């Protein structure tokens, strides 16, 4: 058991208790041992990260500078021995004769495709990308595309591909932060475009849940860069903050992805709820801003202690203030984060341990961004 397991239980179990019958399926995880960024994750480590949720997951290789054939085989083999907990996607480089590799992997058991425009340095209007989508369309395979940090806007080309290849579900990763400010309003025109929640900023996720139809959003963690349990908490709290029902959240959590993986048409979970009507809370907004600044630095290995300290000071309110309970819980999480961080020798290496250390800060930021959702009982008494 990791040091954050009790914390995850305190935060996650009350949320899942209100979602009877929910089956969590993580749309975005990796395994591999050669990624240039230093991250490493085995299939056994990934399954251990999924264990607190009892979840299954889509899995694909991390970046492999030498090519993906061997890494794809390793992913397919790991999935085959996982008792159906892992669903393999093959990762393709458009510059590396991708369609024959996709066909080979499909015969071996792959059930989708992963593309990473930043890592492999291509854009979605590449002719080889179109050939990949033609293959995916013919075989009704989902295609997950990196649409987060370091990626130029790609939404226009994604929608063009979606229109041309309607039987290939497109999953834009990382809350589609490269395009989400305009893309959500176009989703009703493109029923095969989806967005995953593998992202750390809860304000981006609240925005996504407010503006996108809930049936187009898929729970995801980006493991091992994110932790499935923490991202499940972020996903559910942000969905509740935006006004989604329990039934809609169940679709987000896994029911929709299960249909896509089976080659079935998507469920319609209703329209987007729209922007919130309640006024913003300036006290919590200040605290969230400092926490978001700190997390943005800490995630890339830069110092963030000054911003954490400002967030901690921002939680000092009068006991009679309407934000008092929330601020007390945020303060407790910040203090816990400080304790965990001192036990790690190096926070600059991407790893499950590093993300576990940042987990309390992620929860603190999420609490500040989701004031409509109750504080867990264990923290309400802090």
Describe the structure.
- The protein has a six-stranded parallel β-sheet. It has a three-stranded parallel β-sheet with strand order 1-2-3.
- It folds into two domains: 21-261, Alpha-Beta Barrel (TIM Barrel), CATH 3.20.20; 282-380, no CATH class.
- The chain has helices at residues 5-17, 43-50, 69-80, 98-108, 117-120, 127-139, 155-164, 180-183, 202-211, 228-242, 246-261, 282-299, 305-314, 324-341, 352-369, 377-380; strands spanning 25-31, 56-61, 86-88, 90-91, 113-115, 143-145, 170-172, 193-196, 217-218.
- Helix content is 48%, strand content 9%.
- The chain has 16 helices and nine strands.
- The longest helix is centred in the C-terminal third of the chain and has 18 residues, at 282-299.
- It is of the alpha/beta class and 382 residues long.
For this entry, give a set of tags:
single chain; 382 residues; alpha/beta; TIM Barrel; 2 domains; six-stranded parallel sheet; three-stranded parallel sheet; 16 helices
